[in-house]
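Re-run with default settings, no changes from the original entry. Doing this only to confirm the output is reproducible before filing.
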Amino acid sequence: MKNQIIIIFISFLFFGCATKKYKKQGFVIEKSYNYEVPFDYINDLIFIPVVIENKKYNFLFDTGAELNIIDPLVASELNLKKLRKGVISNESDSNKGVSRVEINDIKIGNLQFKETAGMLWDLSKLSDLVGCVKIDGLIGNNLMRKSNWQINYKDKVIKFSDNPKSFYVSNNARKTVMNSRNYGNILFDIGINDKVKRFTFDTGFNGFMETGVMDFLENEKYITTIGLSGGNYNGKKDGEVHYCHIKLFNLNGIEFNCPSVFNVKPNNSSLLGNEFFKNFIVTIDWKNDFLYLDPQNEIEYKKLEMFEVSFYPDYGKNEIFIGNINKESDFLNKMNPHSKILFINDYDVSSFQNNELCDFWDREWKILKKLDRLYITIENNDKSNSEKIIIEKIKDFE
């Protein structure tokens, strides 16, 4: 499964008080077109190049955001029309009085999207969680609705067209309704055993599947951790996370044999993310309200891979910290989440410079996380001394 030791998930963005007018406004001048653009796939998130006022930027492609987002530093370089202020929120966080703007022109590939709305929000905390990539903004589904899209995760290419019939879709593709109405998110009814809940199609979520509905844990074995539970536009979030193994689920009545780990976080949104969708060529037909999932490979069994104490990299500080702690671990009352890690085995991780943390996480950590035991040194709260401990790999739901 996805490296659960990082446990950094970008929660979907919902703009509760953004009016229908702002979500629906905007248009494309071209009447007939077929374009494509390459994307970078970083930490299981899609980043595409965009051009605004002849300046190039790096935007997260986020189907779970109901409006575009632009970082204020980027906005300061642009001539944006101010709109009424609004609210940025998800099910657990809310911020009022957020500035809304009209973006006269966003160019993706060779296509210009005119007069779409967006929100101004500081994305630096999000960048610190995601990795060594600067996030200038998010492309939301308010812009996406002006075209039809096909995401090829394997080739790292997104195609977009005025005509959904221009995309190749094989006979093996699963077709389902998107329940997308004429604005807002794409929604699926997800069934696991006898429980059904509406989930959001969210490419801004780099995990497999998660929900805040505790009923999904009924009669199931699960592992609970305490500490860092994920991240969203406000930065890091703390809380409990329950990990439960599922063998299959159905999406709008279509069954998927998809053994993986399902996250349950109290009061969290219900999301289906890239760890699932990356197994398909995904075609989004806004015109007819259909989604096509064309299999690219067999979905392999993904077991839980995490230690009794997990870590996360903070790319803004260039340091590694304790993420969360298994509720059954003896370390639960002996250390605190967000304590700084000084050594992992023989690696000094206390003083990374420039991109050294990125390189370590991409290379050395991929080897270390496969071990059954790690020797770590953590900095005590008063920073005057340190403590060496041994942590063990959690056995997969045994």
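The first helix runs from residue 20 to 24. Residues 1-9 have pLDDT under 50 and may be disordered.
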